[in-house]
């Protein structure tokens, strides 16, 4: 039950994000896109990975180290301030603010003052007993350093609507969602696992099995 409930909130939040004014500069990517947008894997949704097109920050092509550093800061501040405030406003507009709370990741210190990608946690009011593994939270992770393309337009539905078409769980009108192609997602997962298991980080690979899946 908790997994289905979480998938419902993932679907709602993803749909809301792509109603925001700058949604044409966002791309949905990662493992959740493989299940939600393409049906290539059967995995319950846990989080939402998004990319912001660097052109949104007036940056194009190959970047210098200085430009990359500037992009990290601009992207991080955009997520903390603009994207968070617009998402909160959308929650209010659709009457969801009574059921969930939007909390952006705090600033860090030193070289990590502006985390990038930066996370936004959306805590929702669960209808079921708390589960240690499935927390009543949807995490959005948004960055601007990944390549924006290649993408295709997709649409998503919650597991509830997929299994019971007579139940419409959509809170917004149908929106196409720019989504990274499965081939690109596969390469990103392969690179992530290579980095993880060729370094000391492989010793703390808890909760990484979903990448292998």
Automatic annotation (TrEMBL):
Family matches, as InterPro entries: AbiEii
Pfam families given in the database record: AbiEii
Highest taxon listed in the record's lineage: Bacteria
Protein name: Nucleotidyl transferase AbiEii/AbiGii toxin family protein
Organism: Porphyromonas catoniae F0037
């Amino acid at each position: 039950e908790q997994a289905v409930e979480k998938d419902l909130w993932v679907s709602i939040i993803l749909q809301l994000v792509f109603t925001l004014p700058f949604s044409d500069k966002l791309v949905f990517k990662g493992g959740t896109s493989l299940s939600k947008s393409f049906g290539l894997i059967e995995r319950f949704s846990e989080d939402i990975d998004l990319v912001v097109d660097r052109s949104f920050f007036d940056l194009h092509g190959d970047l210098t180290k200085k430009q990359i550093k500037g992009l990290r800061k601009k992207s991080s501040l955009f997520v903390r301030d603009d994207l968070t405030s617009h998402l909160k406003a959308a929650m209010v507009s659709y009457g969801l603010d009574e059921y969930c709370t939007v909390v952006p990741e705090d600033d860090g210190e030193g070289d990590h003052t502006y985390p990038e990608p930066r996370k936004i946690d959306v805590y929702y009011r669960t209808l079921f007993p708390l589960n240690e593994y499935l927390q009543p939270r949807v995490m959005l992770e948004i960055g601007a350093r990944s390549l924006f393309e290649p993408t295709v337009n997709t649409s998503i539905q919650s597991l509830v609507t997929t299994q019971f078409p007579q139940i419409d769980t959509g809170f917004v009108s149908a929106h196409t969602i720019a989504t990274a192609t499965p081939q690109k997602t596969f390469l990103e997962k392969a690179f992530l696992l290579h980095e993880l298991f060729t370094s000391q980080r492989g010793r703390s690979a808890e909760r990484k099995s979903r990448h292998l899946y």
